Amino acid sequence: MKVTPATRAMLTPKICKVDLCHSPAGTRGMCTKHYQRWLLHGDPHHGESVPLTDSALALMANATVERGPDKGKPTLVARLAGELLAARKPG
């Protein structure tokens, strides 16, 4: 039997399209857990905590106010992210 690309695609098990989830996909390309979250809350990530990596904190530490008299100044999130980054560095 000749396996065409279309047949191969149908035979390949689908994985949930939500990042870092490796469960089998079902409805709308999501696993049951993420589909239920999307259905109930409108967000497949609802209720999940996200780890704050150093690279994520570095991006947040560069956030500045975009409008108004404080334009260009660091936001509160930027100041807090900077403090967290500094606390993580050894020394």
The backbone outline, from C-alpha atoms, is elongated
> What are the segments in which pLDDT stays under 50 over at least 5 consecutive residues?
none
The percent range for helix content is 40-55%
The number of helical elements comes to: 4
- Counting DSSP E segments of at least 2 residues, the number of strands comes to 0
Q: Could you say which structural class the secondary elements and strand pairing correspond to?
A: mainly alpha
Mean pLDDT: 86
Beta-strand residue fraction: under 5%
Write the element-wise H/E pattern from the N-terminal end onward: HHHH
Largest sheet: none
Number of domains: 2
Explain how this protein is built.
- The chain has four helices and no strands.
- It is mainly α and 91 residues long.
- The protein folds into two domains: 12-48, no CATH class; 54-88, no CATH class.
- The longest helix has 13 residues, at 76-88.
- The protein is elongated and about 65 Å long.
- The protein starts with a helix and ends with a helix.
- The mean pLDDT is 86.
Task: Please supply descriptive tags for the structure shown above.
2 domains; mainly alpha; 91 residues
